[in-house]
Amino acid sequence: MLKTAKDKSVAPGAHPSYPDRENFGRRTLDISSTNLRSSLQNQINAIQDAARIAGVSLTHIKPHGALYNDAQDNRTLAGVLVALAQIHHLPLVGMGGSLLSSIAERHKVGFISEAFIDRRYNGDARLVSRKIADAVIENNQDRINQGLALASGKPIQSDTGPDITISAQTLCLHSDSAGALSTARLMREALEQDGFLVKAPSL
């Protein structure tokens, strides 16, 4: 996959999670910051080793799954991620306006704000839990519409309140969402038709 990313000029990154393979990292774990940091470090080291073999450099660190959500507003988790980003000299990807983003800024760690085209949001601009029905947007056109609104800085509809506006430098589409490949192609076409240049985020 890293070799393909290099061939396609895609900027790869590390996507570490809680050490929870059974649940694909989508469950919050009660784990000490020391053990979590060790696990995340091992995961980042592993992907960096693979990247070196493929002849490509990592460009960012983005926490995965439950860790992504938890770290946005948890000072301890955010601190662990910022410390790892400092060690590896890589920017973090996360939600704009989050505690994670402010801690990263305070420690002069690059931060790339992100929004999701295939997930619904609560009124507080946090993702609707996957445990809730319709948390994942299944319809292609709905994904495209949300992506265009996010890219343009326009409001999107929330599930629990008024429309919200989310700052985003990069858009996420989960590869395991049904029809993700088709969505990705259509999303790029729609963005380019609206005058956007699709490229890797820069700081």
Description:
It holds the Pfam family LamB_YcsF. The protein has 203 residues and is mainly alpha-helical. It has two domains: 1-109, TIM Barrel (Alpha-Beta Barrel), CATH 3.20.20; 115-203, no CATH class. The chain is built from seven helices and three strands, in the order H-H-H-H-E-H-E-H-E-H. Helix 6 links the parallel strand 2 and strand 3. Helix 2 runs parallel beside helix 4 (75-88), helix 4 crosses helix 5 and helix 6 (140-152) packs across helix 7. It is globular, with a radius of gyration of 17 Å. It starts with a helix and ends in a 10-residue tail after the last helix. The mean pLDDT is 96.
Features:
single chain, 203 residues, mainly alpha, TIM Barrel, 2 domains, 3-stranded parallel sheet, 7 helices, 41% helix, 6% strand, LamB/YcsF/PxpA-like, LamB/YcsF family protein, Glyco_hydro/deAcase_b/a-brl
